[in-house]
Structures are given as structure tokens and as C-alpha cells.
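Researcher: Let's continue the batch. This sequence belongs to Sodium-dependent transporter, and it's 444 residues. Same format as the previous ones, please.
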Amino acid sequence: MAMRGEFSSRIGFVLAAAGSAVGLGNIWGFPTQVASNGGAAFVLVYILLAFVLAYPVLMAELIIGRATRANMVDALGKISDSAIGRLTGIWGFITVSLILAFYAIVGGWMFSYFAESAARMASLEPLSSWLITFSAPRNILFCGIFMLFTATIVLGGVKAGIEKWSVRLMPTLVVLIILLIVYVSFQPGAIEGWSAYLVPDFSRILEPDLLISAMGQAFFSMSLGVGTMLVYGSYVSKDENLPTIGAAVALVDIGVAILAGMLIIPAMYVALNNGVEIFTAEGALIEGDQLIFTVLPALFTSIGTVGVFVAFAFFALMIIAALTSSISMLEVPVAYLVESKGLMRKKAVWVMTSIIFICSCTIILNFEHLFGFVIALTTQYSQPLLGLALCIFAGWVWRRDAILQEIQSGNPDAENGLFWKIWPWYVRFVCPVIIAVMFIRSIM
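Model: Same format as before. Here are the C-alpha cells for Sodium-dependent transporter:
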């Protein structure tokens, strides 16, 4: 059994865990959701739900991880003392690998658009147009590049890989967002974007659809249910006060999502001002891949020479957001292969990278049938159900005294604190009901 890694500092853990949580969803999903769902009213509901729903589940993962000091399969097997625990862990392992398979394709697109802005700077027109034309060879090449970057970081292990890079990449991400916000805010049309983003429409605050969207966004933006936070929790020192660092992770994640909105929504209205179409036929704001690969590139082109540099910075930002999430996803199956199957870390990383890359290539070659299907299967169905399972393990299966003992190792007075008064019954009764209702609604 190899010596387990551990985060060397609190900031290292917070930035790595927040990096895992801050992904492309924060940057391309959240801003459009806000603007389409009553502006700041949605932001308020989202912040509330992030703490009411996502934070308790995040804490369940961190506590289980640190107490068992194990990967997801062994951890759930230990606390439930049953095959069901291990099977749930394997289900999480498969889900996270499939999420990474489609995520790597999107991460590859970020690389190709980043390379395209470099090609434009060098006036390499034919290369530039190949880089942004949708094709299987381009998709496979850049998906492979993205997986290589991810694997290289994970090879370094917890301290020399994940922590070292998260501590560099996350501050860079925030600086890039802030610089781009400043630049975009001075462009004509930005004011309308700011008001769409910041002016609340409180009449919509209790709309069921708004609540479901905000709940989904809070849940998925913290990358819950698939074991990334459980595995990161298993690398946290026993001296740390878990409820506090869990709250820090949640705050950084929410903060980056809100910052991303301050960039994307004004940028969309600047694009509108420059003649780029930002609404769909139904009158909703364009979101997702169309926003990132159609609206914003059109905006960068419309602002002339500076546009190339803005595009370069923007896609660098997107690559960082994608990488900080993909390294945590790859760590979940790698930790399992190293600890349960006794593989050397290097071998485990390359085995998992190859398997996931083959899955990605299969999706690319059957793009129309598989891409949307895999996304729906993993994020809409599997992830909420895994979150529900984790609540049941933490709330019903695992012994209360064992949980308290784990929290007390970093905070001896935990029993009298607010967290312990609320969290155990909350994760037992409230979270499962909310997740179940949300899940049933999203299928209906």
C-alpha cells in the first residue's frame, strides 16, 4: 500500500477543491441562467440554495473522505460495511469517468479556439479556419491534448501535482476574469448587460422553474455526488476544521460563478451592440456551447485588433477552468486503482487516461447520438442519485458518534457548535427530500 498523499496547506486544499468545483458550468451555464431567470433574484436564490443544499452534501463527502482516508469505493464500503457501499462507489467511479469523457471533448474545443487566436496573431489563415471548423480529426486531436495535460498534472500526485497546479491556476483564473470584466465594462452596450445581470426581478423568485434551475446549478457547480470531493477530503489533514474549510470552498465556488456572470452577460450585450445575435428564436439568451463558440468569438472579431488578444485571454481562462475540474475527476478512478488494485500511480494514471480517451473518441465518432445522451445520463440522472445515496450513507447508515468523532479531530468543541446542531438531521431528512423532488421534477 503506497503512502497516501495529503494537502500541505489549507489554502492548497481550498483552491484545489474550489478548482474542482469551478468548471465550465460556472462560466457558460451560470451567467445565462441568471440573465434568463430574473437577474439578481436568481443569484440570491442560488446563493441560498448553495448553502441550503449543496454545502451539506459537500460536507458529507468531505467527512466520509477524511474519516476513511480512502477512495470512494473503499470509503463507502468501510462506513456501510456492505457490498452496497462498494457498488455505489463503483457507480460513482463509472459516472465520473463518463463525465470526464465528454468534458475532455469540450476542454479540447477550448484548446483549439485558444490555438486559433494564436494562429490569427501569426496570420496563419488556413490553420485558423481548420482550428474552428467542427471535424472528427480536430476533436480527437485536441481532446487528446486536453487529456495529456490532465494526466501530466495528476501524475505528480496530491502535493506536487494537484495542489501545486491548483495554487497557480486558480489565482490566474480570477485575475484573467477581472481583467476581462474591466475591459468589457468600458465597451458600448455593457451597461445594459450589467442591468440584466444585477437588477433583480423579485416577481420571479418563487417560480418553480427558477428554483429547480438554481438548485441544479448549485448542486452541479460544486461537482457533488461523483466522489471528487470525497477523494479530496481524504487528503485533508486531521487538524483542519472541516465545516470551515467546506464553507470556504463553497464561497470561492459561488464567488467565481458570480464573477463569471459579471464578464459574460455584459460581453453578450456588447456583442448585441456590435450586431451579433444573442437571443434564440424563442427570445431566450443563447447559452452553453453556442454562447462560447459562436456569440463570444463573433464579439472578439467585431472589436478589431484587440479582439485577438481578448480571445486569447478568454480561452486561456476557459482552459484553466476545465483543467482544474478534470484533474479532480481523473483523481477519483486513479485513487481507486492505486489503493484498491495496488497499481503504481504512474500506471494507474495512464490506464485511466487511455480508457477515458477511448470513450471520448467513441463519443466523437458517434457525436449526434452519444454526446447529448452521455451528458444527460451522467449529470441529470446519475449525479443527483449519487448525491442522494451519499446523504443516505451519511445520514442513515454511518454511526452518528463516528461522524462526531471525525469532526472533533479538527474542532474539539464541535458538539456544541451550530454545525453539529443542524447538519446531522438536515442531511438525514431535508437533503434527501429536496434532491428527490428536484430529480423527479427534472425527469417529468
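Researcher: Any comment?
Model: The longest helix spans residues 83-121.
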